[in-house]
Structure formats: structure tokens, C-alpha cells
């Protein structure tokens, strides 16, 4: 299994990128959102990857974070969702947007992805509603990107200067809030739904405030 590719971009397209790794060019299929985020040709790049193996086909699919890769794994477990449909959904919603849509039962958001019809979108929401909270709760751990390093063994004339280190990932308030609520005894699906809804509140600007807003939604109604 090829779990990560790190090298130099030698070609970019709307739905794939070719990465040179010590003289070997790997074609990695990506979502349009990921493609737009990649550096230009000639610069270092790293992606987490998932290898699709068929009798007559080998394809690599790339993701900027482990969180997106995990969502891809879940999406492709749904009947009717192949790798390309998964990339279309992730490219439209992103990892956080997908988690929020599933938690809220918002299948219309999933349907907005190219090639995804209403029945398939509803199936995604129904089948992943119980699995999504655990991924959302792990978001803080899985949002670390693939961390491209300075490419070794490149000729000095072609080596690009290393880019400045990426800023530390921002705190994932959603993940922390879901984890806290499940520790309080709420069902993961209920906790994820309340946190997703509470995140619309502009006052929920940190974990504690997000938890309080979610608890108000979870409180029994008179």
C-alpha cells in the first residue's frame, strides 16, 4: 500500500497531478479543491494516498490531510460511491463540510456534488450518520497535512528553495466539542448533530462556547 507521496510536481491538471519521486513520476488523482491548493510545477508537494487496485488498473488518489483520506474511505464504503464520486463530494464540501452535512442530515448539500443524485446523497447520509461522529471527533488529530519536506538528491540547479514552514493547524473546536459531549453521555450522532448546528452561532467562537451552545440544543424541550 502506498500511503504517502512526497516529491516535486512536474505536471498539474484539474483532476490529477504528476509527482516526481527520485526519477519516477506518479500520477495522483485529486479533487478540484485539492488541485487548486497545490503549489505550481517545480515545487515540493506531499499527499496522503489511497491505492485502488483492480484486475486491469492501478490508480492513486491523493488527499492533503489524513482527515480527508478517512472521509474518502468512509464514502467509498457506501454502495454506489466510487473513488471519483468521493473526490467530487470532497471537492465540493471539503472534509469539515461533509461531516457537518452528514451530522445534520443535509443530503441536499451532498447532492450538490457533480454526478451525485438525490437517492445516492440520501444513502450517504443514512449509512454514514452513525460513523461520521467518530471521524469528526478525531478531526483535531487527523487534520495534520502531509508536510512536504525539502526534496533530497535533486540537482542543485533545479532545486527550489524550501518554502516557509506551514502555520500550526488551528484548533478543531468541532472535534473537541463532540468528544466532550460524548464523554458526558450523549450519543455520538446526537452530539455531532448539535455541534454542527451550534457552529452556526457566531458566539460559539471557542470550544467551551460551542459546547454550551450545543448543550442548549440538546436540552429537553418543555
Automatic annotation (TrEMBL):
It is found in: Cytoplasm. GO terms for molecular function: ATP binding; four-way junction DNA binding; four-way junction helicase activity. Residues 65-142 are annotated as: Domain II. Residues 174-219 form the Holliday junction DNA helicase RuvA C-terminal domain. InterPro entries: DNA_helicase_Holl-junc_RuvA_I, NA-bd_OB-fold, RuvA, RuvA_2-like, RuvA_C, RuvA_C_sf. The gene is ruvA. Belongs to the RuvA family. Keywords: ATP-binding, Cytoplasm, DNA damage, DNA recombination, DNA repair, DNA-binding, Helicase, Hydrolase, Nucleotide-binding. Signal peptide: none annotated. Homotetramer. Forms an RuvA(8)-RuvB(12)-Holliday junction (HJ) complex. HJ DNA is sandwiched between 2 RuvA tetramers; dsDNA enters through RuvA and exits via RuvB. An RuvB hexamer assembles on each DNA strand where it exits the tetramer. Each RuvB hexamer is contacted by two RuvA subunits (via domain III) on 2 adjacent RuvB subunits; this complex drives branch migration. In the full resolvosome a probable DNA-RuvA(4)-RuvB(12)-RuvC(2) complex forms which resolves the HJ. Gene3D superfamilies: 5' to 3' exonuclease, C-terminal subdomain (1.10.150.20), DNA helicase RuvA subunit, C-terminal domain (1.10.8.10), Nucleic acid-binding proteins (2.40.50.140). The RuvA-RuvB-RuvC complex processes Holliday junction (HJ) DNA during genetic recombination and DNA repair, while the RuvA-RuvB complex plays an important role in the rescue of blocked DNA replication forks via replication fork reversal (RFR). RuvA specifically binds to HJ cruciform DNA, conferring on it an open structure. The RuvB hexamer acts as an ATP-dependent pump, pulling dsDNA into and through the RuvAB complex. HJ branch migration allows RuvC to scan DNA until it finds its consensus sequence, where it cleaves and resolves the cruciform DNA. One of its GO terms (cellular component) is Holliday junction helicase complex. Residues 1-62 form the DNA helicase Holliday junction RuvA type domain. GO terms for biological process: DNA recombination; DNA repair. It comes from the Bacteria. Its main location: cytoplasm. Has three domains with a flexible linker between the domains II and III and assumes an 'L' shape. Domain III is highly mobile and contacts RuvB. Residues 1-64 are annotated as: Domain I. This is Holliday junction branch migration complex subunit RuvA. Residues 158-222 are annotated as: Domain III.
Amino acid at each position: 500500500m502506498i500511503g504517502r507521496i512526497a516529491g516535486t510536481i512536474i505536471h498539474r491538471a484539474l483532476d490529477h497531478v504528476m509527482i516526481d519521486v527520485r526519477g519516477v513520476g506518479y500520477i495522483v488523482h485529486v479533487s478540484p479543491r485539492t488541485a487548486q491548493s497545490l503549489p505550481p510545477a517545480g515545487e515540493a508537494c506531499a499527499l496522503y494516498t489511497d491505492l485502488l487496485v483492480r484486475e486491469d488498473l492501478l490508480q492513486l488518489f491523493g488527499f492533503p490531510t489524513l482527515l480527508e483520506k478517512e472521509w474518502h474511505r468512509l464514502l467509498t464504503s457506501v454502495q454506489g460511491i466510487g473513488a471519483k464520486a468521493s473526490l467530487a463530494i470532497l471537492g465540493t464540501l471539503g472534509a469539515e463540510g461533509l461531516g457537518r452535512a452528514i451530522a445534520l442530515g443535509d443530503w441536499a448539500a451532498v447532492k450538490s456534488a457533480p454526478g451525485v443524485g438525490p437517492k445516492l446523497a440520501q444513502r450517504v447520509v443514512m449509512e454514514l450518520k452513525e460513523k461520521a461522529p467518530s471521524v469528526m471527533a478525531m478531526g483535531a488529530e487527523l487534520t495534520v497535512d502531509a508536510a512536504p519536506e525539502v526534496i533530497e538528491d535533486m540537482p542543485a540547479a533545479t532545486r527550489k528553495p524550501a518554502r516557509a514552514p506551514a502555520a500550526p493547524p488551528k484548533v478543531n473546536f468541532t472535534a473537541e466539542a463532540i468528544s466532550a459531549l460524548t464523554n458526558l453521555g450523549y450519543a455520538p450522532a446526537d452530539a455531532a448533530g448539535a455541534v454542527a448546528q451550534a457552529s452556526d452561532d457566531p458566539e460559539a467562537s471557542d470550544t467551551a462556547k460551542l459546547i454550551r451552545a450545543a448543550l442548549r440544543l440538546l436540552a429537553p424541550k418543555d
